[in-house]
Design a protein that fits this description.
alpha/beta, Type Iii Antifreeze Protein Isoform Hplc 12, single chain, 11 helices, about 350 residues, two-stranded antiparallel sheet, TIM Barrel, elongated
Length: about 350
């Protein structure tokens, strides 16, 4: 069992839902604080930021590999530096955002992208850390976070089993076993067909950690399916409105969708239950409505049961229908009116 703040995480409790603000504040603190309110209204457990500056994550270079030219990339036509300048959350906003989240009953933490971000977040006493997919091979950063002793959530996008093993071992070598791995596909948006949720139970067994999903697909279907496979944490980007734009808005949830995510993943978790055959307590009353054998005509003692005067019908208070062939041709020993459930007491 892992605990973030006062919230336990595991298969014994409902999924832990993280609302990722990312850069959807559009460089407006007012909008950022409104996003916190919307996340709380949706019923999520935690709000997450990303902590970096353009200079801590890349170089101020706008050509070559520092410029996005891939036609399939959502951010084609921007340099990395300018993209991160647009997307980053000013560090001086963090405390106000975290305080707002706490006021509204949300846990709040962040993804640091270098060691200075970890040092800064420690001054804010965050309850956990998130390692983004692109940093899951940054062993010095992972080691730095592990040494805080706090729960560490690692997105697994692009990572091989060997790379994940190195990341997990790094955390454990620092005496920290509070690890949650998030199955992740690092495309924006991601497609359900490229999500490979079947990895979730395998990942849990392979690494001995809690496992969840960092979901970049549209809608809630993939997240719900992940819960049925054992995901205990779901992370989704969210925004006020996709129509209002923003660096991540194209694959982010709107408030009503975020609320649906909370509700439907909890329903999926509730439905898992346990391995069980036979009627549940709630089903016991329905047993009466199974089919059974009934007298279908008024009969006198000594009459013979035939296919015309015995029927298998609902409700289920007579003999089970499996005895139909056995009772046909038998003589009854007392009068019976139409609608009487057939029992062994009527047979000679």
């Amino acid at each position: 069992m892992i605990k973030i703040g006062n919230r336990e995480i595991g298969r014994h409790t409902k999924p832990f839902i993280i609302a990722e603000m990312s850069g959807n504040h559009n460089q407006s603190l007012e909008r950022a604080l409104r996003l916190v309110e919307l996340a709380a209204e949706a019923g999520v457990d935690a709000l997450k930021l990303q902590t970096y500056t353009p200079d801590t994550i890349t170089l101020d270079v706008h050509t070559g590999e520092f410029f996005i030219t891939n036609d399939a990339n959502l951010w084609k036509g921007q340099s990395l530096y300018n993209l991160y300048k647009e997307a980053y959350t000013p560090w001086e906003w963090h405390k106000q955002i975290f305080d707002k989240a706490k006021e509204l009953g949300l846990l709040a933490f962040s993804s640091p992208f270098d060691e200075t971000a970890v040092d800064f977040l420690e001054t804010l006493d965050v309850p956990a850390y998130k390692i983004a997919s692109f940093e899951n091979v940054d062993i010095p950063l992972i080691r730095k976070v592990a040494r805080t002793g706090k729960p560490i959530i690692i997105s697994t996008g692009m990572a091989t089993a060997a790379e994940l093993d190195e990341a997990v071992r790094t955390v454990r070598e620092e005496g920290n076993d509070q690890i949650i791995l998030l199955k992740c596909t690092s495309t924006y948006p991601a497609s359900p067909s490229n999500t490979n949720l079947a990895t979730i139970p395998h990942m849990r067994d392979l690494f001995g950690t809690e496992v969840g999903l960092s979901d970049h697909t549209m809608g809630v279907g993939v997240s719900v399916a992940a819960v049925t496979l054992g995901a205990t944490v779901i992370e989704k980007h969210f925004t006020t409105s996709r129509a209002e734009g923003g660096v991540d808005s194209a694959f982010s949830m709107e408030p009503h969708e975020l609320k649906m995510l909370v509700e439907e993943t909890e329903r999926a978790w509730q439905s898992l239950g346990q391995i069980k055959y036979g009627p549940t307590k709630a089903e016991e009353a329905s047993l009466e409505h199974r089919r059974s054998l009934y007298i279908a005509a008024d009969l006198k003692a000594g009459d013979v049961l035939t296919k015309e005067n015995v029927r298998d019908v609902r409700p289920g208070l007579g003999l089970p229908t499996k005895y139909y062939d056995l009772v046909i041709g038998k003589t009854i020993k007392k009068d019976a009116s139409k609608g009487t459930p057939l029992s062994w007491d009527y047979l000679l």
